[in-house]
Design brief:
By secondary structure, the protein is an all-alpha fold. It has helices at residues 3-6, 10-41, 43-59, 61-64, 103-139, 141-155, 159-170, 174-183, 186-200, 204-211, 216-224, 229-252, 264-270, 272-275, 281-308. It has one domain (35-66, 92-312): MetI-like fold (Orthogonal Bundle).
Length: 316
């Protein structure tokens, strides 16, 4: 066999490489645009740094925590931040609470609960709401009316009151808290997914998929869903912040996780009686942690909304 017979023509070789190279090239281009847009915006970079620190504390809490967050030492109770002991050391960087527990260690462990509740609740609410919104928008009719009326009924009640009612009935606990917060978020995703699906189901690519014999489930979840994920992703980034605030509020009311588990909201609850006596650090540090985390998620969500806006694709 000759050399010309063994070698493939250049256009055939390029065609063979195209299916693998084109998606890879698009991914690289998308990553390049994201990094460029992120650096140009500046504030989202700072938000990412804050969230990276919070995530680091949540994942590696036992490794980076200087003390056991539940270890009590009545002799060292209510010590001020940065207080130097007789040996010239600062054993409690952010002070201690009324039971002598290290505030800094409790802040680190509290980050784990906040992020865990935030992400899992958003995953539950986002998945449930997106599926119901897809079904309502694609089929319409009575199915659409039934799902949207359920959403209207839930929106008729303040969410925090519904959460308190269910947690009083089910009892406090991490699992119940995540379920209540997750199920309570589905309405937003359902309404957005429904509106986007109604706009997409008459497009040519959907009609082409139907003409090629695709099933309704395949059209909904493999054809329409990838094209409506951008606004849902933006809503999810904002929703993490609202869920963290809701978890802190419920923990402040004593309806979150058990008191033995350190949480930022629980720390605020425990500091109520100490503020009058001037123990400011017991409320300031967990409050600042909540504010910075929520603000960082909101800034990142705002950038993500602008980056995924198709009208701004040509910029950058």
């Amino acid at each position: 066999m000759s050399e010309t017979q063994v070698q493939s023509p250049p256009h055939i070789a390029a065609a063979a490489l195209a299916p693998a190279e084109v998606p890879r090239s698009r991914r690289r281009e998308g990553l390049r645009r994201a990094v460029k847009s992120l650096l140009r915006a500046r504030w989202p970079v700072l938000a990412l740094v804050v969230l990276a620190c919070v995530t680091f504390a949540a994942v590696l809490g036992p490794s980076v925590s200087p003390m056991d967050p539940n270890r009590q030492n009545i002799i060292q109770r209510l010590q001020e931040p940065m207080k130097v002991d007789r040996q010239g050391r600062t054993p409690h960087l952010l002070g201690t609470d009324a039971l002598g527990r290290d505030v800094f260690s409790r802040l680190i462990y509290g980050a784990r609960v906040s992020l865990l509740v935030g992400f899992i609740a958003v995953c539950i609410g986002g998945t449930l709401g997106t599926m119901l919104g897809l079904i309502a928008g694609y089929f319409g009719g009575r199915i659409d009316d039934f799902i949207m009326r359920l959403a209207d009924i839930q929106l008729a009640f303040p969410f925090i009151l519904l959460a308190i009612m269910f947690l009083v009935v089910l009892g406090p606990g991490l699992t119940n808290l995540v379920l209540v917060l997750g199920i309570g978020q589905w309405v937003t995703y359902a309404r957005i997914a429904r509106a986007q699906t109604i706009g997409q189901r008459e497009k040519e690519y959907v009609e082409a998929a139907f003409a090629l014999g695709a099933t309704k489930g395949s059209i909904m979840f493999r054809t329409i869903l990838p094209n409506i994920l951008a606004p849902l992703t933006v809503i999810a980034s904002f929703n993490v912040a609202s869920v963290i605030l809701s978890e802190a509020s419920l923990s402040f009311l004593g309806l979150g996780v058990p008191p033995t588990t350190p949480t930022w909201g629980g720390m605020l609850n425990e500091s109520r009686d100490q503020l009058i006596a001037g123990r400011w650090w017991l409320a300031v540090f967990p409050g600042v942690a909540i504010a910075l985390t929520v603000l960082s998620f909101n800034i990142l969500g705002d950038w993500l909304r602008d980056f995924l806006d198709p009208r701004l694709k040509s910029i950058g």
